[in-house]
Amino acid sequence: VSDYGVSQQISGCAVDTRDHTLWVPDLTNDFVYHFNLTDGGNLSGGFGTISTGAGGVIDMDFDSRDNSFWLMDYDDGFVYHFNSVGVNQSDGFGVGTASDYAGIALDTRNYTFWTFKTSVEDIFHFENSTQLGSFDIGTTYGATEGFGVEFDSRDGSLWVTDQNGGVYHFLASDTGGNLTGYFNSSASSGVPILGY
């Protein structure tokens, strides 16, 4: 992606289910790039985020209800909502303090959001700015510096990544995550190791 001016500060992405393309937020350039999944080509339609105040977008998710995007801004603990052409919809919401939340996943069962709070290594569940619940994955499962969260609509579960290569699979619940699997993506053998 560096061929297209994307910095090395990318951490999340969203697949657009309308045309199976990939949207990637660039934390350094404050821009969301649009890529073709077939050949990796940079497509038109990307958009800047800094003019709306979103200066540290660390992750995003696609909303198929209206073909829009929800972006987590790490710098200010705010979730921004952009339409498919990059216009801020002004119905975003705050989830906490700056430099504390990473990752965002849209729960398509009820259109709520899951995010990772890095200071306490917990997964939080929000409906707009109202916290619905949370569960620990740092102390209980050893996750450190959580990075990404993705909702799996096939079974209502969450996939969570940390900065040490851990990939965790939880059944999503407001009162506690039930770990169903784990592997380390940076295992020296190159083969994921199942654990827990």
Protein model, in words:
The protein is mostly beta strands. The protein is 0% helix and 48% strand. It is globular. The termini are far apart. The relative contact order is 0.10.
For this entry, give a set of tags:
196 residues; four-stranded antiparallel beta sheet; 16 strands; globular; disordered C terminus
Q: Largest beta sheet, briefly?
A: 4 strands, antiparallel
Q: Low-confidence spans: pLDDT under 50, at least 5 residues?
A: 188-196
| Mean pLDDT across every amino acid position | 83
Say what oligomer this is: single chain
Physical arrangement of strands within the biggest beta sheet: 1-2-3-4
Compute the number of helices.
0
Instruction: Please state the structural category.
Output: mainly beta
In what range is the share of β-strand residues? over 45%
Say how many strands there are. Answer: 16
* Helical amount: under 10%
The 3D shape can be described as globular
Order of helices and strands: EEEEEEEEEEEEEEEE
